[in-house]
Amino acid sequence: MRPFWLYIYSARNLYGSLFALVGLALYFAGIIQDYWYLIVPGLYLIGFVSNPASRADLDLKQNLADSDIKNELERIIAKARRRIPKEAADHCDRIATLVVDMLPRLRALQGTQDAFSIKQAALDYLPHTLENYLALPSAFANIHPLQNGKTAKQILLEQLTLLEQSVQDASSNILQGDAQKILVNTRFLEDKFGKPEDFFRTS
After folding, report:
1. Is 42:169 a contact under the CB 8 Å cutoff?
2. Residue 151 in 3-state DSSP?
């Protein structure tokens, strides 16, 4: 049944139906009489083919330099923003901010799970999550239940929530590791030179 509903809600069918309704209106207004039964389907076909299926094209190239990932993430989110709910766009913005903030640290952490999770969120998970949603007609995504009564819109929000939490957890792990380095260095300096208050002690 899903292919049927995808067709019903598709932009092509909606445009075709609109053109066909114009034909029917012309018929009932008396403007066209002969061959109206051919003209109306013909107008539907014109509307159908005049609105070719769109492709989201949100792929983010794998070989981008860190300095370019920020711009590409902004491009992807800007392109998707026109058709995704505001809550989804807010999730995307927060994910992009977390990723960009972590990028300078990732090169030194290559091979770790946290670095992999953050980089993949930018290069793969976020673009593909949005692209899968945008492949659906807007009306279908907003009102047609897909799983357990949830629409594609609701499922998108759940997926972005999980993705944001994953990036946030990975970022926290990295920052905690950096903080731990500060504590280790503090203990080293204390062992080497004594605690700071020792500098001011008088014998």
Report:
1. no
2. strand
Q: How far is CA 202 from CA 47, 170, 190, 196, 197, in A?
A: 91, 47, 18, 13, 11
Most confident of the ranges 61-75, 125-139, 152-166: 152-166
The label of the residue with tokens 């930018």 reads: 122
Query: Is residue 26 within a helix (H) or strand (E), and if so which, with residue range?
Result: helix 11-28
Cα(43)–Cα(35) distance, integer angstroms: 12
Helix, coil or strand: residue 23:
helix
Determine the average pLDDT of the residues in 174-189.
61
Contact yes or no for 171/101 (Cβ under 8 A): yes
65-116 pLDDT per residue, tens:
766 888 888 889 999 998 899 999 999 999 999 999 888 887 777 767 888 8
DSSP string, 56-109: ------TT--HHHHHHHHHHHHHHHHTTS-HHHHHHHHHHHHHHHHHHHHHGGG
Confidence of residue 1 (pLDDT cuts 50, 70, 90): very low
